[in-house]
Amino acid sequence: SEERRICVFRVMGPLQKSVYWRLSLIFVFTAFMFFVDVFTVHHFSCASLRESGNVNFLDESPEKNFSYDISNENRSLSIAFAESFNVSTNKRGTENKNKHVMSSECGDNKLREYGLTMYMSGLLLGSLFGGALSDKYGKKVLLVGCSTIQAIIALMPAFIPNAIFHLTARLIGGIMCCGINIASFSLGVEWSLPRYHVWPPALLSFSFSIGMMFLALIAYLASNWQQFYLAIAVPQLLCIPLYFCIPESPRWLLMKKRFSTLEEYRHESRKDQENLDLILETVGMKTQQPIEQNNASERISDFQHFKSQTIVQRLCIMSFISLSSALTYYGICFNVGNFGVNIYLAQFFSGLTEMPTLLVPLLLVRFGRRTFTMISLLMSGSGCLLSLLVSKLCDMPSLVMALALIGKLCMQTTVFVSLLYGIELFPTVIRQKCVGFVNLWYRIGCILNAVLSPKDGISLEAMICYGSGPILGAGLCLLLPETSGISLPDTVQDCKKQPVPSLFSKSRKVHVPGKDCSGLEPIQELQ
User: Fold this and answer.
1) What is the mean pLDDT of residues 334-358?
2) I want to staple 467 with a disulfide (CB 3.0 to 4.6 A). Which of 193, 367, 385, 462 is the partner?
3) Which residues form the Major facilitator superfamily (MFS) profile domain (predicted)?
4) Domain ranges in the chain?
């Protein structure tokens, strides 16, 4: 495994490496914006408020201006955020105010729910037209534009302390995040050789987890709302010039017949020239389809393809897995502060538990898509249900959170693998439509998490939902075929020919000839 990892990086040229580390940097910053709402309004210590008696929640209007002047400098950033939205400070607090604080569950969670809902709605909106913009103007243009707007959106709340503006910024930020995801994953995969397609998504997921850890550190060190947003915005603004050096997708350049740009990339280095020739050769083999086959496919409408029982079954299964994955993953991510432990440590370990996703490509070679998806779903559901059982039998918040985070790690690997698995399950003629439909249910799960966010810890019903959904999804995977080492299906008939192995059958190892290093068998991934 170690030799294979070294081989992956050794075959990269300087241009490819520059693509990967710049995309990784963007994903670190994207994690900042993704989980801002975790620290926006948080349940803080009722005891400290009871002693101070100087906080009054105003439930009538969430449109209050933020306040940077906090009387007690030692109060946590979470309290500052709560006061920034709908809390007014008053040194002459009364007992009635304290009772109102207690009855409000020591914090109004409504604005956090609004922020989450707006951000997830932005992700849904971005998925509707992000792919079309990427196809028309190029992945680099979409990536640079979204990254620049995201950096500006991160900076403005520090100087425009208004709740309505904050919610608008969250909506725009969600749209930009979706554009970044669409461009980054495609750009990373298209700049890699076919047998290494699985590594860029793993690297970007690893970078995202690093961003989650850094966000917890920034939130802990920042003393108020303005410092927090400046800390996450200034690095993004400083790194914007680096994004203009990201090369465009060679596949897109070839389709647009921009051969001069391809020649510039080819002359960067000898290694880049060799890899680029291999990438373009693969693209050329895919695009040279028989004219008769294309004309025959055009005569069959998409509706007729979707009438196939095989396609409908796979759409339903993958949609359910996407929905349950979103509910479990984001349900735990956005409620790490509700496990009864320190919010900053919870967010830090939430990111730390996702770092092993970098090893997923190695596990996929051994277990295959289908088996690995089933194992990760079962472990995710079991972790959530075990955390629920422990929470009811004993008072150990740390153990409960640890089990829940293990479940979240397994769910993250499920999401990662299902991105590749979904592509390989559907035929070329309707692949983008099917993947888009599955992704729609993933976004619906994100929005449901935001709308139904628990106000007083994670409820019994929520944890049962987080645990039972993945377990049921693992059972449904038994109806799906194993796609490792098999070429992508072009028609519905090709999908029907994909073998569905038995429960205990071992996945086949398929050797695919190609350029390799150190005599290692190349990793067979998306063709």
Assistant:
1) 73
2) 385
3) 23-485
4) 302-507
Q: What angle do CA 191, 127, 254 make, to 5 degrees?
A: 30
262, 253 contact by CB (below 8 A) = yes
> What share of the chain in percent tops pLDDT 90?
11
CB atoms closer than 10 angstroms to residue 94: 12
Report the C-alpha gap between 447 and 388 in whole angstroms. 23
Closest CA to 23 of 234, 167, 206, 159: 206
> How many other C-beta atoms are found inside a 10 Å radius of the C-beta of residue 306?
15
Instruction: Look at the block and give the residue holding tokens 């700049």.
Output: 191
- Asked if residues 401 and 453 have their Cβ atoms less than 8 Å apart, the reply is no
Q: Which residues contact 469 (CB under 8 A, 6 or more apart)?
A: 320, 323, 324, 327, 328, 381
- Alpha carbon 159 to its chain's center: 28
Instruction: Give the residue among 115, 97, 100 at the shortest CA–CA distance from 37.
Output: 115
How far are the Cα atoms of 26, 138, 266, 279, 430 from residue 252, in angstroms, in the given order? 21, 7, 15, 12, 20
Q: Give the residue among 465, 66, 383, 20 at the shortest CA–CA distance from 202.
A: 20
Q: Please name the residue ranges forming H helices in 426-477.
A: 431-451, 460-476
Q: Specify the CATH class of 302-507 in words.
A: mainly alpha
Query: Helix count (H) and strand count (E) of the chain?
Result: 24, 2
Separation between Cα atoms, residue 118 and residue 133, nearest integer Å: 22
